[in-house]
Design goal:
This protein is an alpha+beta fold. It has one domain. Strands 1-2-3-4-5 form a 5-stranded antiparallel sheet. The radius of gyration is 14 Å and the shape is globular.
Length: 87
């Protein structure tokens, strides 16, 4: 799977405007935002502003860095390789 990160300014209604569009094989799958100093101990973490499909989450994730965010995205998008049980 080819992940591409494209810098973008995101208007979140707060100071968190530094963002990245995340594409998987050319399709938009998520928007990440870097948390600003307003978030105190979380400043500098990457936040899943929104995810689509299997990345949609009611409790959006926070990541220590972009490598952690990419690893999480790859895991969530990976096809289920477990054998299926017959009904």
């Amino acid at each position: 799977m080819d992940l591409t990160l494209q810098p973008v300014r995101v208007r979140t209604g707060s100071e968190d405007e530094r963002g990245l569009l995340v594409f998987a094989d050319g399709a938009l799958v998520a928007v990440l935002v870097c948390l600003s100093d307003v978030h105190e101990e979380d400043a500098g973490l990457w936040f899943l502003e929104t995810g689509f499909g299997s990345l949609a989450s009611l409790q959006p994730a926070k990541f220590t860095d972009l490598d952690a965010a990419e690893a999480w995205i790859r895991r969530r998008l990976a096809p289920d390789l477990r054998p299926r049980r017959p009904p």
